[in-house]
Amino acid sequence: MLNVNKILLSLFCFPFLLGAETLNLKIDGSDLPRDQGIAKHSYASILKDSTPAVVSVTTQQFVPLRYSGSSNPLENFLRRYYGLPEIDEPVMEKVPSGIGSGVLVTSEGHVITNAHVITDQRSGRPVEEVLVQLANKKEFKAEIIGFDRSTDVAVLKINTEEPLPFVVLADSDLLQVGDVVFAAGNPLGIGLTVTMGIVSATRRTELDVFRGQRGAYENFIQTDASINQGNSGGALLDTKGRLVGINTAIISQTGASIGIGLAIPVNMVRKVLTDFVKAGSIRRGFLGVELTESENLDGAMVGKVVPQSAADIAGFQAGDVIIKVGKTLVSSVNQSRLAISQTEPGTKLPIVIRRGKDEITLRVTLDLLGNSTELLIPGITLRSLSSSVRNEYGLPSSVRGLVVTRSTGEEKTFKQGVVIVEINGVQVSSIEEVNKQLKKGINRFYVWYRGKYYFHAYRIP
What we know:
This protein has 461 residues and is mainly beta. The protein has 7 helices and 29 strands. The strands form 5 sheets. Strands 10-11-12-15-14-13 form a 6-stranded antiparallel barrel. It has a 6-stranded antiparallel barrel with strand order 4-5-6-9-8-7. Strands 17, 18, 19, 20, 21 and 22 form a 6-stranded antiparallel β-sheet that branches.
């Protein structure tokens, strides 16, 4: 739990106290029939079709529980005398570490949950094992396809010959305050539970839920449907039984549900899912400006334009105020960042700015976030971990980061095939993130190479 300005905000992963792929999503982008005035007495038939896709997600970690060496001093002496090694390595055993929820979104077994459900809360690294239990109590070991801490979305995959239930995805941009929604998940580990409420607000972008997470994107649906610990990663459904969001957090003074729940819109979730499955990494649009809040709080002011960036080529100037990105009106830096990041790189995007008293539409072809060729580590080339790159270098799906594809100046530290996972304790997945985390002096790298993780130190003068 995080304390935000004396308000207890809970990311409710319940602690256990107790190659490119085909992506067959079914999407129904139609709006709700809000003009029907007859009250509905039961949603049982609708929920009966959609809730079987809601699953329980259990994580396990390997921890040292005991040592295999003998406690007999004489035996240890004899082993040393005869040149035998003392067996004092800890015996690693799997122990349950957390329970959350998830939802199946394809018949092939793709599961959406929260990134904080399947990662260690201290290190941010993925847990050793994830188990998914279906509504029929069958349990499967899940593969972590990818997780994005900046949106708190994770993609899992389970493999089975049997047909799997899945939910239809709605268009979350059509949600309105007052729409009836259902929160389905595994609260407190008691099993599938459904609660009902309404959409209390949309586009909540200034809550600082991911405090401490650099570059985070917030765009929450707020609901009063009861959400509790263990609901993380569960489904927020509309009255057609379609998925409109992924439940992720509550705001509370006690840690219990008081009717302020937050869900990630399914449109944002779908972007993360598609990128991980089809590209192997997140693909976000990059404009190339530094933004600050405008004086009138009615847009995002351009403070600096990155030379030779998409913004520079399109004609952006310092002092411009962004008020519309594509079809989306924006009134803050967060809303502007979100709209740009959700746009596919290479898209020619109209952006409306206010320059002085004039409104001007600039058309910009977005770059790929993190595609900068300027790297502060000389002598190496890095690439994102797409399916083809993983196959080329034999990298397992559990490894995240950037792989060294060429190395000339730093062979001892960064050999070809090394995957840079973290820099100074922060996970990196793009060159931009690498450059952000590097600092003058000693930098601590956490890397993967040939099946093992290592720490390396690298000095930047």
